[in-house]
Amino acid sequence: MDDVIKTDAGRVVGAWDGELAEELMSELKRIKLKLAKAGATEKLIPRQMPHRNQLPEDLRDFRAYHLWGCDRSGNIVVGTNANRIESIQKVRSFSLIDHH
């Protein structure tokens, strides 16, 4: 799995190794600030973040809110602004799929 973070235009703007959700959250904040400062119209697409395969299969089509990435410990960066971290279990509690 590639570590690169790309904009919707395909430009490489950062990287995440899939280890810690906190690192992804910091990297996304840095990238968004850089894009805003440059007046760029490019966007980041949550479903195109690296290591998407670490997200459990049953959450890959989750639509209640944005899921940016899941680290190896099961912590997920969530929200439109990628400013929260939730456990897989908490995200599943908002899912319409029965997980019992």
Brief sketch in words of this structure:
The protein is built from two helices and five strands; from the N terminus they run ββαβββα. With 100 residues, it is an alpha+beta fold. The radius of gyration is 13 Å and the shape is globular.
Describe the structure.
By secondary structure, the protein is of the alpha+beta class. It has one domain. 22% of the residues lie in helices and 19% in strands. The strands form two sheets. It has a three-stranded antiparallel beta sheet with strand order 3-4-5. Strands 1-2 form a two-stranded antiparallel sheet. The longest helix is centred in the N-terminal third of the chain and has 17 residues, at 21-37. The protein is globular. It starts with a strand and ends in an 8-residue tail after the last helix.
Beta fraction: 15-25%
The string of secondary-structure elements, in order, is: EEHEEEH
Low-confidence stretches: none
Shape: globular
Question: What portion of residues is helical?
Answer: 10-25%
Secondary structure tally, helices: 2
- What Rg, in angstroms, do the CA atoms define? 13 Å
Question: How many β-strand stretches?
Answer: 5
Largest sheet: 3 strands, antiparallel
Compute the number of structural domains.
1
Mean pLDDT: 93
Sequence of strands across the biggest β-sheet: 3-4-5
Class by SSE composition: alpha+beta
Task: State the end-to-end CA separation.
Answer: 30 Å
Helix and strand topology:
Elements: E1 4-6, E2 12-15, H1 21-37, E3 67-70, E4 75-78, E5 84-87, H2 88-92
Antiparallel strand pairs: 1-2, 3-4, 4-5
